[in-house]
């Protein structure tokens, strides 16, 4: 008889008959069905198919990424549910052995992640759920692939494990981050207060890592509050969108060229799964605090989906003091819509004529002039948006005599740079 994990996990694992029936209909029932075959052979065959399905573009630039990129454990999930259905809970010990034999650093990541995904698919069974929970807890919440797998398990299980991580958080930074993530994605109103107390607790001096972890939990807490503020009938859809973004953000990639390239890779996987809701994107654009890389993914998605309705939120980001202002400006151009270009033009209006006897500007005007100067300098010198419509936009501004000659010349240079970047056979300039 296996020793039970903590009481919180046991409570989370008392699944209702309705939930068991629902998951069984989805193809994850506890009893094995169809030809059983050899578990080991079936497992190895699944791993081979997964390896064959991994896109070959992980080492390519963002512009060359293949369309089949997936995030989180989505690439594994179909195979995991099929293996769980074929072999049922009897596969639990075998899967745990695979997990332990292929821990991070072993060079067998695909096998490790597939075993974890299959345990998550089996987590409707209490024994399999306890096994997965025990592995995560005993490992100190360090295995990020295991944490990812938990997000595919039944919500009651993931929520219970998040609360268990919260109990361990005073002794472990890993547990604190895991608690924030799991309760962000699966938490209930009662979990808001527990996270708030951690975020607002007095911080001892010289605790930079603790401050960074609390900032991450604060961002997770805000996401949880945003979900719970939605009408009850909308919360499930909002949560599904948030899981997709979180899984993309924490996906493992093998593209080590740069952080920017990695973000482009996982963003491709995010948009491959389908559109994100406008109301969800709006919530995340205005969220503060928010993980800065997550904000980039959200901004890119807004641009890809041509979300004209979110132009006011992009403008607010561009003119504000928050991080990633340049990405918001690029997104306004990348919308490739008349509304987006009009918004950019309003951000860099022609400078007023300066009469010789004009009085000294006040503080508000100074701030506005400084903001306009920064936006202008970014757009003409650093913007990475490169397409025909953007080249035409710069060409139009370069011919507008309302702007002084030096600015029209800068607009012409921006136009020429964009044309060079989109010309076949040429190398685009690097992103700043």
Plain-language structure description:
The chain has 432 residues and is mainly alpha-helical. It has two domains: 7-251, no CATH class; 306-352 and 364-422, no CATH class. The protein is built from 22 helices and no strands. It has helices at residues 7-12, 17-25, 39-53, 74-87, 92-101, 109-121, 126-138, 144-150, 155-168, 173-186, 189-200, 208-229, 232-249, 259-272, 278-286, 292-304, 311-319, 325-334, 338-347, 363-381, 388-398, 405-422. Helix 4 crosses helix 6 (109-121) and helix 9 (155-168) packs antiparallel against helix 10.
Q: What number of domains?
A: 2
Number of strands: 0
How many angstroms separate the termini? 58 Å
Write down the overall geometry: globular
Poorly predicted tracts of residues = 1-6, 11-36, 57-63
Decide which structural class fits the backbone: mainly alpha
Q: State which percent range the strand residues make up.
A: under 5%
SSE order, as H and E?
HHHHHHHHHHHHHHHHHHHHHH
């Amino acid at each position: 008889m296996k020793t039970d994990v903590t009481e919180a996990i046991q409570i989370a694992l008392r699944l209702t008959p309705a939930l068991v029936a629902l998951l069984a209909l989805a193809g994850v029932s506890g009893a094995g069905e169809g030809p059983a075959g050899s578990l080991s052979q079936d497992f190895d065959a699944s791993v081979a198919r997964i390896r064959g399905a991994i896109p070959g573009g992980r080492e390519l630039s963002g512009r060359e990424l293949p369309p089949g990129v997936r995030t989180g454990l989505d690439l594994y999930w179909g195979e995991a549910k099929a293996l769980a259905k074929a072999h049922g809970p009897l596969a639990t010990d075998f899967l745990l052995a695979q997990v332990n034999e292929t821990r991070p650093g072993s060079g067998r990541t695909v096998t490790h992640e597939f075993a974890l995904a299959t345990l998550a698919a089996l987590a409707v069974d209490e024994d399999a759920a306890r096994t997965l929970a025990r592995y995560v807890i005993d490992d100190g919440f360090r295995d990020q692939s295991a944490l990812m797998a938990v997000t595919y398990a039944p919500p009651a299980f993931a929520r219970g494990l998040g609360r268990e991580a919260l109990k361990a958080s005073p002794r472990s930074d890993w547990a604190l981050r895991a608690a924030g993530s799991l309760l962000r994605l699966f938490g209930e109103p009662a979990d808001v207060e527990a996270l708030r107390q951690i975020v607002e607790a007095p911080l001892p001096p010289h605790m930079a890592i603790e401050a960074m972890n609390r900032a991450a939990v604060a961002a997770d807490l805000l996401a949880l509050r945003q979900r719970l503020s939605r009408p009850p009938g909308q919360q499930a859809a909002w949560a599904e969108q948030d899981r997709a973004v979180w899984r993309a953000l924490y996906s493992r990639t093998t593209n080590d060229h740069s952080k920017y390239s990695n973000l482009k890779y996982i963003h491709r996987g995010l948009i491959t799964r389908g559109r994100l809701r406008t109301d969800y994107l709006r919530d995340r654009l205005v969220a503060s605090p928010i993980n800065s890389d997550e904000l980039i993914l959200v901004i890119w998605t807004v641009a890809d989906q041509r979300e004209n309705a979110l132009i006011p939120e992009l403008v607010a980001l561009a003119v504000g003091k928050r991080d990633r202002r340049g990405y918001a400006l690029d997104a306004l151009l990348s919308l490739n819509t008349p509304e987006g270009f009009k918004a950019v033009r309003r951000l860099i209006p022609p400078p007023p004529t300066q009469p010789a006897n004009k009085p000294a500007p006040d503080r508000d005007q100074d701030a506005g002039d400084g903001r306009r100067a920064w936006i202008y300098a970014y757009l003409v010198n650093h913007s990475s948006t490169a397409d025909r419509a953007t080249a035409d936009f710069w060409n139009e501004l370069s011919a507008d005599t309302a702007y002084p000659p030096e600015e029209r010349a800068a607009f012409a240079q921006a136009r020429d740079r964009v044309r060079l970047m989109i010309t076949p056979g040429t190398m685009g300039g690097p992103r700043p």
